[in-house]
Amino acid sequence: MSARSLRAAGAAPLASILRAPTPPRWVEDAVGHLPELLRDHANCEKKAASSALALMFAYAEDTPLALALSRLAREELRHFEQVVRAMSALGVPCARQRPGRYAQQLRRALRSSDPGRKLDLLLAAALIEARSAERFQLLAVRVPAPLARLYRELGASEARHFEVYTGLACGVAPAQWQARLGELAAREAELVTTPERLLRFHSGPLHLRPTPA
To answer: What's residue 14's pLDDT?
Structure first.
């Protein structure tokens, strides 16, 4: 299904999907801890591809979903490669990091079985993509020039991805998806505005010095 078809099917506009903006303090924290941010960003791109593939396996009978997410997964892996190249140019080595709370806590709000699980997985992915797009836009004006260009490009890509996910969600539950999106968006907003100890791409602002990655 094309992006145009997905928008026609009911994909939500970016401005309407997030219940709270990223706190300005998170932007300051991110700019001040760029190596940690970049390492987590690279991990996020791999996770995004993995999540798309997991949905394809979980709902193998849904051909439109499989085709849309196959394209999306390939793009996420290209993004991973771009981030690693940017890290290399900036002298930031790859390293294992402890995961933040964001994805784990958001997934705890999802229903554990179908009917309902499929819709929730699509909406959670949409929220993650929308938050990513917002944060790329915020960071693009604060990071070094080569990275700023990449972040502007990635912001546009993530905005397309959230349209894919909300379009698919609309196809799964035309009458319910918007109300459920509102419920999950409220939890997502709590997670990105509540201070925490680890700086991550989707974390809240820091309330203590960051724990070593």
So the answer is: 61
The pLDDT of residue 7: 42
- DSSP bridge pairs for 196: 206
In this prediction, residues 64-79 reach a mean pLDDT of: 98
pLDDT of residue 32: 96
Whose tokens are 């026609």? That residue is 8
pTM for this model (two decimals): 0.91
Helix axes 24-32, 117-140, angle to 10 degrees: 70
Task: Determine contact, residues 192/32, Cβ cutoff 8 Å.
Answer: no
Question: In the chain, which ranges are continuous DSSP H helix?
Answer: 3-9, 14-17, 24-32, 34-58, 63-89, 102-108, 117-140, 145-172, 177-193
Residue 137 · residue 212 · CB < 8 Å: no
Task: Give 138's contacts (C-beta < 8 A, 6+ positions apart).
Answer: 22, 27
Find where tokens 């499929």 sit: 118
Residue found under tokens 């990655």: 213
CA distances from 89 to 106, 147, 155 (A): 33, 10, 20
**Which residues on adjacent β-strands are paired with residue 206?**
196
Q: Say if residues 25 and 205 touch (Cβ distance below 8 Å).
A: yes
Cis peptide before 99 (omega within 30 of 0): no
